Amino acid sequence: MFYKSGIKSSGFLVLIVALTMLLAACGDPTATTVPTTTKAAATTNTVTTTTVATTTSAVATTNAATTTTAAATTSATTAAVAPVKKFKVVTTVAPLTNIVLNVGGNRIDLHGIIPDGTDSHTFEPAPSDSRYMSEADLIIVNGLHLEDPTLKLANSAKKSSTKIILLGDNTITEKDWLFDFSFPKDQGDPNPHLWMNPKYAMSYAKLTYSALVELDPAGKAYYDKNLSSFTTKVQALYDGIKIAAQTVPADQRRLLTYHDSWAYWAREFNWEVLGAIQPSDFKEPSAKEVGDLIDQIKKLKVKAIFGSEVFPSPTLEQIAKETGAKFIDKLRDDEPPGEIGSTEHTYVGMLLEDMKIMFEALGGNVDALKAITPDDTYIK
Q1: Bridge-partner residues for 326, per DSSP?
Q2: pTM of the predicted model, to two decimals?
Q3: Distance between CA atoms of 122 and 128, rounded to whole angstroms?
Q4: Distances (CA, A) of 237 to 136, 364, 370, 374
Q5: Beta carbons within 8 Å of 191's beta carbon, 6+ residues apart
Q6: Cα dihedral 308, 314, 318, 324 in deg (nearest 10)
Q7: Tens-digit pLDDT profile for residues 54-86
């Protein structure tokens, strides 16, 4: 009996012990809830913090991107409106100044030292002109001893880096120099008026182009277009003059002018220059010289003789009266027509006006030139 009772008691005890151990192993349900909740909360906070951090980072990234974009936009806008640096270029006589303008256009700050219609042979630059020379990035002159006082000032006032371009000296060589009444060979200075020949004017433009591209390589494409437009127009001018000149009777293709500025034009178009009234000392000719001209004009039956608005000449008026030739004092070689800034106040405008005056007075016409406009050709 005891044995059986003992087995029953032992089984009960074992059960109690087993339950106790199970409870110990599982732990207190109340105790496990708190850590689990705390852990969950911590996990939630961590996620929230990470989310906030990520959001903050995203905002920061967005702000940075916005700032970068804004900076880039500002930079692009600044680049778009930033003015192109204009190089300072100084020239001399008005026709040269206009040729240079048509190549350099809006990329240069251009100043012509010698005023329109001023005798460039005797022009003395003012002391104030030295400022333009000292600030110039490029100086362009005709050369061939036309502007010696101005050239002297340029050499003394310019920056060491500033180049001086002599257009005439780089267009023809000594074998092509012309000497005449106003520029006698025994004095050594050739006739410098090359620009009256449109072919030489195109050479002047090409020399200007080369100098500007060297000074301002970034502007090459712009200068390319300007040079092409200008030389195209001057070539058309040349072709038109060649045709129109033939409308003048052969025995009237002779020029007597006040100033000897037509030598290179006459050689190009096969005309004869009878002479010029203004001698090499830029004074009036002697009585004998005037008498010889009168005899020559009477013999050749010249219809018209030409003076200049810049150089009024009582001597030419006297010759006209004694020979019966018509006296026209409107030809120009260094003063384009019209007001400065007007459409016709250009190199091409000057040649068109001269051809009309000359050819019509001598019995020809300018029909071949009617399609040519005097306006500038550079890109504005």
Answers
A1: 304
A2: 0.77
A3: 18
A4: 32, 17, 10, 10
A5: 144, 177, 178, 179, 180, 182, 183, 260, 261, 263, 264
A6: 30
A7: 444 444 444 444 444 444 444 444 444 456 789
CA angle 197, 242, 266 (to 5 degrees): 45
Tokens 């005890």 belong to which residue?
Answer: 13
Closest by alpha carbon to 119, among 278, 274, 273? 278
- Pick the range with the lowest mean pLDDT from 8-22, 132-146, 194-208, 262-276: 8-22
Q: 3-class DSSP state for residue 85?
A: coil
Kind and range of the H or E element at 43?
helix 29-81
d(CA 217, CA 138): 14
First to last CA, the chain: 131
Confidence (pLDDT) at 181: 74
Would you report the helix, strand and coil content of the chain in percent, each value rounded to 5?
Answer: 55, 10, 35
The four Cα atoms 203, 204, 208, 209 give a dihedral, to 10 degrees, of -30
Question: For the chain, what is the largest distance between any 2 Cα atoms, rounded to a whole number of angstroms?
Answer: 182
Q: How far from the centroid of its chain's Cα atoms is residue 377's Cα?
A: 11
* The token pair that represents 74 in the structure block: 């500002």
